[in-house]
Amino acid sequence: MIEPVNSETHEVPTWPAASAPSASDETSKIAPKLSVVVPVYNEEDNLIPLHGKIDAALCNLGLTYEILYVDDGSRDRSFELLSEIAARDERAKVVRFRRNFGQTAAMSAGMNYASGEVIIPLDADLQNDPADIPRLLEKINEGYDVVSGWRKNRKDDEIRKFPSRVANRVISKVTGVHLHDYGCSLKAYRASVIKDVHLYGEMHRFIPAYAAMVGGKVTEIAVEHHPRFAGKSKYGMSRIFRVILDLMVVKFLGGYGNKPIYFFGGIGIGASLLGILCWLIAIAERLHKPENHINGNPLFYIGILLFVLSVQLVMLGLMAEMNMRTYYESQKKQPYVVAETRNIDGANSV
Ligand code: UDP
Ligand code: MG
Q1: How far is the centre of ligand 1, averaged over its atoms, from the C-alpha of 48 (Å)?
Q2: Relative to the alpha carbon of 40, which ligand is closest?
Q3: Does the beta carbon of 234 lie inside 6 Å of ligand 1?
Q4: Which of 234, 235, 237, 243, when mutated, tests ligand 1's pocket best, judged by the most ligand atoms within 8 Å of its CB?
Q5: Who's near 249: CB < 8 A, 6+ residues apart?
Q6: 41 lines ligand 1 (CB under 6 A)
Q7: Is 13:31 a contact under the CB 8 Å cutoff?
Q8: 44 lines ligand 1 (CB under 6 A)
Q9: Contact 30, 5 (CB under 8 A)
């Protein structure tokens, strides 16, 4: 729900303003804030031009905004430069990690500190173009909760683009959320949709899929992409394996996060049925050829193995159920997400 900043005016604003207002326009006073979140790790040569570009892209939009730089334990002059930027521009806010915790953690911290109703993460290396931000906002204004950037004309080596193309196809298929570019950091999120998303590992790539799980409306638009001119990429090919493992987690949490016994128990029941089938075949063979002893039939042992496996899987499912309940009940989480309420006081109305 978008609320006016100025409580005296009870009109509900559209946001960002449909007809681009000037900074002096009344709408700018009631426009809620936009938070741009920038994870920074050893990007000293990019920060000053980056800040200039973000400012240039946002200053004429007639809305209040903040730029949250999260220094992820840089060992170069990044923090010094960010402090200088923050001293000159109060819209620039800086969070410094004690050590390098990774891009996902940096993005997550930025989102936690953000106060905007729309959050836009952006890489610090000038590969994303802040000039695309107004177009992302237009889509949010159309009613989307997530607008994913698509680096249609991506300026990276083929050796990075090819695995990424495969990964995007697989992730789209597995999650059912069809996007061309999960890996593009430049995306726009309505804060209300991602405020409950906790990011672990390198999960920032999957935020659109998580958002869709809680009923968010997701779309994508093509965005600019530039080659990296300064600094180095922080990733190698090992991210392929991490993406595969993260995808398994996303799929499991999305499908069975609050009913794990159906997953483990389902496979367990399947295994025991297969075990029974093995025994039936072994018995039938024994009846057909009485000279063969059942002990000598491998199917008999495979049946026992499958049966033991099924018991273990059901046990694992029960353990996972207990874990899941602890997770939900210790945090007073509900297995549903409320969109809005009417005449209900103090309810979770987001
Ligand atoms: N980054 C970070 N912590 C890390 C690795 C990267 O904050 O441990 C930041 C980095 O400074 C950049 C963004 O995340 O702003 C994307 O990183 P990079 O450009 O290396 O990724 P690529 O574009 O090569 O996928
Ligand atoms: Mg980059």
Answers
A1: 17
A2: 1
A3: yes
A4: 234
A5: 201, 203
A6: yes
A7: yes
A8: no
A9: yes
Q: Is 47 in the pocket of ligand 1 (CB under 6 A)?
A: no
How do residues 170-225 score in pLDDT, each as one tens digit?
999 999 999 999 999 999 999 999 877 888 888 899 999 999 988 899 999 999 99
In this prediction, residue 1 carries a pLDDT of 38
Provide the pLDDT for residue 196. Answer: 73
The pTM (predicted TM-score) of the whole model is 0.81
The pairing of strands 146-150 and 65-71 is: unpaired
| Spacing, Cα 103 to ligand 1 middle (Å) | 6
Residue 3 predicted with pLDDT over 70: no
Hey, is 94 helix, strand or coil?
A: strand
| Residues 56, 130 contacting (CB under 8 angstroms) | yes
Cis peptide before 21 (omega within 30 of 0): no
| 230 closest CA partner among 77, 97, 106, 124 | 124
pLDDT in tens, 44-62: 999 999 999 999 999 988 8
